[in-house]
């Protein structure tokens, strides 16, 4: 099915470990986003890529890095995981360049626990 | 600036109506509405791009008052399937920037 695919779906890390969350879309969308969702906080933007070759910080970028590997793939890396990064991470994409003129399609999420 | 949603939670019986509001202290260039069921990803419902615009999606519709910097989502004759958390999202600055989401409104429809 067409859409946004995230891997892994679940992950438990120890404090200080690193990992990369993968995201791929097959809708030929230009823009891709990483959000985190915490109880009572809504969705907060970590990083985004308006188009292939560009990335920008969002509201909560500290402790994360991103790579826009190609038009399809946008990965999120935690270099040294901390308990405060325990969250559900969603990748999303849309067809407009960095904008909000079209609806976002979200992946199914990665549930990350840092102990 | 995160848009403010109200109410935070609402419980309805099947067939009842509800209104969810989304307001911002900044100018609104557009408003998105999404629904998220428990344990799932948010799903796009609709987008309103112009002040005064109204849209409908099954028995769910929305309005956008640009001057008042707010949008409202209307759910009529609610069904059990409408249960979930509803989020509004607005561009951070001009229309060509990522969405900032409200904290959500949890809607529970009971039989």
Report on the structure:
The complex is a heterodimer of chains A (115) and B (111). Chain A has 115 residues and is an all-beta fold. Helix content of chain A is 0%, strand content 50%. Chain A is built from no helices and 11 strands. Chain A has strands at 4-7, 10-13, 19-25, 31-38, 42-49, 56-57, 64-68, 74-78, 87-94, 105-106, 110-114. In chain A, strands 2, 4, 5, 6, 9, 10 and 11 form a 7-stranded mixed β-sheet that branches. Chain A has a 4-stranded antiparallel β-sheet with strand order 1-3-8-7, with no helix packed on it. The mean pLDDT of chain A is 93. Chain B has strands at 4-6, 9-13, 18-23, 31-36, 43-48, 54-57, 60-65, 70-75, 84-91, 99-101, 105-110. In chain B, strand 9 (84-91) and strand 10 form a beta hairpin. Chain B is mostly beta strands and 111 residues long. The chains are: A mainly beta (115), B mainly beta (111). At the A-B interface, strand 4, strand 5 and strand 10 of A face strand 5, strand 9 and strand 10 of B.
Q: What distinguishing features does this structure have?
A:
heterodimer; A: 115 residues; mainly beta; seven-stranded mixed beta sheet; globular; B: 111 residues; Immunoglobulin-like; six-stranded mixed beta sheet; five-stranded antiparallel beta sheet
Integer average pLDDT of chain A: 93
Unreliable segments of 5+ consecutive residues of chain A: none
Q: Which protein chains are joined by the largest interface, and how many residues does each one contribute? A: A-B, 27 and 27 residues
The whole-number mean of residue pLDDT values of chain B reads 90
CATH superfamily of chain B: Immunoglobulins
The helix-strand sequence of chain A is EEEEEEEEEEE
Topology:
The complex is a heterodimer of chains A (115) and B (111).
Chain A: E1 4-7, E2 10-13, E3 19-25, E4 31-38, E5 42-49, E6 56-57, E7 64-68, E8 74-78, E9 87-94, E10 105-106, E11 110-114
Parallel strand pairs in A: 2-11
Antiparallel strand pairs in A: 1-3, 3-8, 4-5, 4-9, 5-6, 7-8, 9-10, 9-11
Chain B: E1 4-6, E2 9-13, E3 18-23, E4 31-36, E5 43-48, E6 54-57, E7 60-65, E8 70-75, E9 84-91, E10 99-101, E11 105-110
Parallel strand pairs in B: 2-11
Antiparallel strand pairs in B: 1-3, 3-8, 4-5, 4-9, 6-7, 7-8, 9-10, 9-11
């Amino acid at each position: 099915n067409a859409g946004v695919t995230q891997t892994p779906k679940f992950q438990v890390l120890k404090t200080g470990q690193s990992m990369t969350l993968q995201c791929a879309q097959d809708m030929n969308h230009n823009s891709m986003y990483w959000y985190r969702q915490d109880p009572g906080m809504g969705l907060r933007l970590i990083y985004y890529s308006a188009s292939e070759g560009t990335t920008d910080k969002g509201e909560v970028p500290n402790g994360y890095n991103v790579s826009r590997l190609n038009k399809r793939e946008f990965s999120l890396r935690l270099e040294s995981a901390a308990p405060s990064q325990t969250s559900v991470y969603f990748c999303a994409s849309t067809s407009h360049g960095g904008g909000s003129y079209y609806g976002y399609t979200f992946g199914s999420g990665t549930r990350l626990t840092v102990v | 600036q995160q848009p403010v949603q109200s109410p935070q939670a609402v419980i309805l019986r099947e067939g009842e109506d509800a209104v969810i509001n989304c307001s911002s202290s900044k100018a609104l260039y557009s408003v998105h509405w999404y629904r998220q069921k428990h344990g799932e990803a948010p799903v796009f419902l609709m987008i309103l791009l112009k002040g005064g615009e109204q849209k409908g999606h099954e028995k769910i519709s929305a309005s956008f008052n640009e001057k008042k910097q707010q949008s409202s989502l209307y759910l009529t004759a609610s069904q059990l399937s409408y249960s979930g958390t509803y989020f509004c999202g607005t561009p951070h600055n001009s229309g060509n920037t990522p969405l900032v989401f409200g904290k959500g409104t949890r809607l529970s429809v009971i039989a």
